[in-house]
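Q: what does this look like with iron/sulfur cluster bound?
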Amino acid sequence: MPRAKYHLITLGCQMNKSDSERVATVLDRMGMEETGSEDDADLILINSCSVRQTAEDRIFGKMRDFGRMKEKNPKLIIGVTGCLPGRDRDGVIRAKMPQADLYFPIKDLPQLPRWMAELNPEFANEGDIEDDYLAVKPRYANEKQTYVSIQTGCNKFCTYCVVPFSRGLEKNRPAADVLNEIRERARNGAVEITLLGQTVNAYLASDRATGFSKENPYKDDFAALLWEVNQIPGIERIHYTAPHPRHMTDEVIDALTLPKHVNYLHLPVQAGNDEVLRRMNRRYTCAEFLEVIRKVRAKSPTIGIGTDIIVGFCGESEGQFEDTVAMYKAADFDIAYTAMYSPRSGTAAYKAFKDDVPRLEKKRRWMKLQGLMEDTVLRKNQSYVGREVEVLVDSWDHGVASGQSREMKLTRFNSAEDLRGATVRVRVTKAFEWMLSSELVSVVRR
Ligand code: SF4
């Protein structure tokens, strides 16, 4: 009998991508096989993102399409997991998608086999059921580069953000679990580890006394975890996302200098005006943020620093936006992911503030920051010309190899040989806004 098939659609951030690797494990264990096509799937499952209204609207559109498919194939099971069900406490969003047979927050993933069997007894299965979805071992999409979730949920309650509602309060995995997972990945060939958490540097190890070695020099749990990952043979690169500026302790800043840490830090600032930061409930001032940047650059002078910014937050005046422009210049960010504020029901900002910056004005502010970023990134990239950088090759096509440098710069070079998975040194020959062109110097490791 042919195996039943599932089609998994992952929207949103790296955390969702990592969660989808856990969903794949559960469905594989049920004897199903993944298909890249919606048309021959017995189950279509969307791992949803709820960060902006446009992301949600996209899901509603897809559900209408899937509803039409279900009319032709009544056995088709349609599911939605991820952030959308997580934040839908009153069922208002659920009511808008009658096509969904399954609708569950990701923390309920261990229940999926039971629900599938209820919908179709052919899926009855007696596989393992973990209590905690983070304990489900992911089916890793990439052998060399692996995401490892160390935490889920968030306690910060930034006023614009749905995460504390969609994922619940912060929950950390024991250090021993995290380190065992990474050791196992390293034995299977992983060289790059990205630690994931909503406020990843707020990490607390419940097993601090037994999870870390005696030689570990750090008292801060996140810095201590980074030190332990640094000791794991085979791992060459470590990075993490997303840290919170408040938790950039001196030890976490020091840990950026550990030999395997990439030469890059992504540190969301969100706004460059104290009053806007206060209304966002970000819990730091511009001066405090810039002090963190100063300390980071004092320890790691060549580090690349990226950020996230929201423009057009409730009540953001022209002058307050210009403060964000000034902050961008003062911090001299290498890259920024800028978003126009999108009100999300259930959040404090949605309840307390008016979304009063017109859309066209949000767009104008977005474009101004985008222009500033493009100028800055080109200037910074030009400083790499003539320098050697180390690249982990992740793609090769028609004689062109590419990958990211330790500064997280996309770098391309010609290579007759397929070097995917190799670590190489290249010399940068030309800089563009989004890419460094280079020539191969040597292969460090295949
Ligand atoms: S720190 Fe703020 S923006 Fe980040 S996940 Fe938590 S509430 Fe959301």
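The chain has three domains: 5-133, 140-382, 388-445. The first strand starts at residue 5 and ends at 10.
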